[in-house]
Amino acid sequence: MALGSSSVLQGELVNWCKEAQIDTDHALLLIGAPVEVEVACIEDTVQTVKVLGRVRVRDTKIGPTATSLLVLCECREKIDPTRVPPEVLPMDSEEAWKIVFVRETEPASDGFAAKLSRLLQSEGKSMTDVQALLSPLSVSSPESVIHAVGELLEKTTKHSSEGTAYRRLRVFSGVVPTPAEEETMENWVEQAKLMIAECECTEKEKRKRIVESLKGPALEIVKAVRLSSNDASAAEYLVALESAFRTSESGEDLYFAFRLLRQNPGEALSEFLRRMERSLTKVVQKGGLPPGQVDRARVEQLIRGAVESDMMLLQLRLRERKESPPTFLSLLNEIREEEENEAIRRKLNATVKPVLPQDSLQPSQTEIQELRAEVKELRARLEGSRNPPAVPKAPEPKVKCSPKSAEALPDPDVQELKKQVRPFEDGHNGSLYEYSYIFFQTELEH
Fold first, then answer.
1. Can you give the residue ranges of every domain in the chain?
2. For 245-265, how does the pLDDT look when each residue is reduced to its tens digit (9 = 90+)?
3. Which of 115, 261, 332, 334 has the fewest CB atoms within 10 Å, i.e. is most exposed?
């Protein structure tokens, strides 16, 4: 994909926003992010620009080179062109990512001469170079000027595609287990295929780049291919390497293995989805599943295999969306947002056991005074009831009791006291004992 000036990039951003149904005032285009970078890394990097607020990746495309991406991002805050930097530097890289956003249209006062001057300046040329291409008889003809500019641009950009910088492929040898400084078979083949498809260099240059990245057994395979066919293409090199080093599992075997994937205990749903996607990509490459059924198969296996995230699946309503399943990036964004919301809810639901102050457990002085007054009044009533009118009593017969029966009889004073207190008990519903108990407890505490 060849992208030119800022106006071309802004036009690409506007069209992309229409497809994704995103407001251009909250959208930006990120250029230069590596293909292997994680979505979370992209979002964290762009969010370092505080004026953008929260940023979410909405879609990606292959960038100017096969190893870079065009990333469509949506930010919470409205973009202010005067405060947003033209580039952002990731934490783990020295190469900055370019930021493009929709600017206000430039005034149309510039004429052809001004546009021509800017064009020549961007190409490192001047009007003298244009005049050198014109014949003396046709200097004043507008058609001749346009023709001369076209020839100049053709000469300038003739070999630009072959000189375009393309990241060198990592080393691959085919040794198992894969050494630390080398790339695995699957990743290396993917990068090589992107280079062949997107790089505009010649076939000879593509073969050279592949051979430069090989060593050991992998290089021996390519040498054998060149001996059998000196005109073999770079794609034929990859076919030979895949047949020699890739697993012998068929597409059906890989599809069955994909259907057996299950979420591990403690594994986040987003991590399980990414692990599923790697397996699903291999299935499609081996022909185990048509590309048109990838989204549906992904959602079905996520519902089946996410045994640790049942509640989150219910909140995402994936069962109702199987007929129109979301894409991988859309589903990943939804899951990550739900995981963030769940983490916030856990923090808010954390409770602290309330502790009452020791002073609130002690009775106030007013309550103590009221209880003392009530107990004093009850004492007075009790004293008055202990002096009833004298009533002659009949002499009680003397009964001889055995020692055991004497011990069993109650104390006469106690019985008399119970008889005197019982009327107050009946009239005040036992309040005498309650107030007496409270009063003596209070006296003991003081």
1. 6-100, 185-245, 251-348, 364-384+409-446
2. 877 778 888 899 999 999 999
3. 115
